[in-house]
Structures are given as structure tokens and as C-alpha cells.
Amino acid sequence: MTTTRPRIGDQHERTRSPVTTPTESYPVSAPGLPDRLAAGYIFDLDGTIYLGEDLLPGARRLIEALLVLDRKILFLSNNPTRSPADYAAKLTRLGIPATPARVLNTVATMTSWLVRHHPQATVFPIGEAPLTRALATAGIRMSEDPSAIDIVIASYDRGFDYRKLQIAFDAIRTHGPARLVTTNPDRFCPLPGGRGEPDAAAIVGAIEGCTGVRCEQNTGKPDPFMLDAALERLGLPASDCIMTGDRLTTDIRMAIDAGMSSALVLTGETTPEMLKTLPPADGPTWVLDRIDDILPWAVWSTLPGADRAAR
Ligand SMILES: [Mg+2]
């Protein structure tokens, strides 16, 4: 893939500097609906397939239809507090049977990034059990000794405290320079009822704030590393796939940077209001009210028992 690799700092800059005087607003009603069947479908999970513990309208029938149509499917999440097996179990429990191989999240991408690029490094993961378990299983060396740490991994860690911040500080400033990387660039994780929880960007911010270093690698959306890992798993080029998600700065940004078709669903973070000030270059290929609109009606009509009444 030949796309320019954005750094997490770029992502922060983008989210900090919204366009306030767009020369042209995003034509909310213009994109229409997809008119073709793709070989592969990549879906974000939260806000796209489900919200909290509830499947979103049309999600189950869509996945069932894609399987009948023999399409390749991959679920993609930036959340590193669960393993792919945890996500597969949740999807199955909600009514969408899934195996861990059909899920890619930042636990898996951070692990594979380290195995591929820094297999000999000693890392200090500021993260939760699924991440540290995956690193241990992959044979990545971990330490809390600042003098031994080569890479500090700032992740979504609800057990983050001053002791961990001090270890990161010492590894980077006192004994370093250790490198600072993150699993995902999300500022917060949305929760049902409009609530949220500080995510990995909060940990990155704390470490950047006290050390003055910038985080140099993100292994989640929108980084091309995440998309490359997804396409590798599907065995398809970007041109044969559609990325669908609810977040402009991660799901849709990643697809745009790769020149890939994308669909934004309005069932999660993004509201129609937010699209009104969005420059067309930052917009998705399609905007969907519900996820099963990703499949053209001409295709739905070929499926037994599938009609609009089934929605
Ligand atoms: Mg989402």
C-alpha cells in the first residue's frame, strides 16, 4: 500500500482543528446508496453493528444475507480492553454467530506490529489483561523496570495510575529514550445513554504532557497498519471491499486514506448535523440511516424471504 502513514499526532491535530469555514458543505443527501455488491465487507462494531448490548436495526439480517451471498466479512474494533475471542462471543450471544478469526482489534494489531517490527524489544504495556495476555502469548518481553524498557505502549487502561505514569516517564526521560506508541487514538469510548469512558488518547496525553515526546505509532483505525492487517485477513485488495462505520475520524478516515469505498452509518457517533460542515474530501462514499442499506435493493430482492417488510 502506498498511502502516507499518518502519525497519531496528525490524528490529534485533525480532531483539534475542525474546519470552521468550509468552502463547501458535505451534501448529506447526495451520496445515495450502494449500487453494487462488494467481495469483502469490513464493519466497525460499536455504533455500527451494536450499541452496548443491543444489535442495531438490520445488523443480523445483513450479516446473514452476506453469508448467504458468500461475501467475506471482518469486524474491526479499536477497543483493546477485549480480545477477538471476547468479541466473537459477544456477537454470537447477540445473535450473529462469529469466530475470533472474523474479528480484528487493537490487541491483535499491536501484538502483530511488535512481532513484525520489534520482536526483540522490551515493552511496558499500560493496558488491560487482554493486551498483556496477547503480548505474553506472542513472546513479547515485558518489564516495569524503566532502565529495561524500549517501548511504552499507552492503551485504554482503567487501572491507570501515577505509578504507571512514573514508570513511563522514567523509561522515556530518565533512562530513555524509550519510544511511545499506542493501540488506538480514540479520546473516549462511547457508552449507552450518551456516556463515555476516557480511552487510550487520555493515557497518551498524560505521557506526552509530562515527557514532551510525541506518540509515534498507532495500531488502530485510522492507521494504514490496521487496514493492511484487515485486508490481509480477508485476502482482498482495498478496491474490492467496503469499510462501514459510525466514526468519521477513524472508520471513514482510514478508508479515505486508502482510496477505499466507505459507508457511514448514522446509528452511532455521527449526526446529520456534523455532516453539514464536513468538507466533501473528508466524507464517506455513502451515508446510511441503517446498516442493511449497504446491500443494494436489487440484491435483497434476489434473496428468499428478504423484502422491505422484513426490516
Ligand atoms: Mg464505532
Identify low-pLDDT runs. 1-23
Q: Which secondary-structure class do the elements indicate?
A: alpha/beta
- Secondary-structure element string: HEEEHEHEHEHEEHEEEHEHEHEHEH
How many strands appear in the DSSP assignment?
Answer: 15
**What distance separates the N and C termini?**
38 Å
List its traits:
15 strands, single chain, six-stranded parallel sheet, five-stranded parallel sheet, disordered N terminus, 311 residues, 11 helices, elongated, binds magnesium ion, 2 domains, alpha/beta, Rossmann fold
Please tell me about this protein's structure:
- This protein is of the alpha/beta class.
- It folds into 2 domains: 8-13 and 32-78 and 221-310, HAD superfamily/HAD-like (Rossmann fold, 3-Layer(aba) Sandwich); 107-218, Rossmann fold.
- Helices cover 34% and strands 17% of the residues.
- It contains 11 helices and 15 strands.
- The protein has helices at 8-16, 59-68, 84-94, 106-117, 129-137, 162-174, 200-211, 224-234, 248-257, 272-276, 297-300; strands at 40-44, 50-51, 54-55, 72-77, 103-105, 122-126, 141-142, 151-154, 179-182, 188-190, 196-198, 217-218, 241-245, 261-265, 286-288.
- Strands 5-4-1-13-14-15 form a 6-stranded parallel β-sheet, with helices on both faces. Strands 7-6-8-9-12 form a 5-stranded parallel β-sheet, sandwiched between helices. Strands 2-3 form a two-stranded antiparallel sheet.
- Helix 4 runs parallel beside helix 5 (129-137) and helix 6 crosses helix 7 (200-211).
- It is elongated, with a radius of gyration of 20 Å.
- Residues 1-23 have low confidence and may be disordered.
- Residues 44, 46-48, 245-247, 268 line the site of magnesium ion.
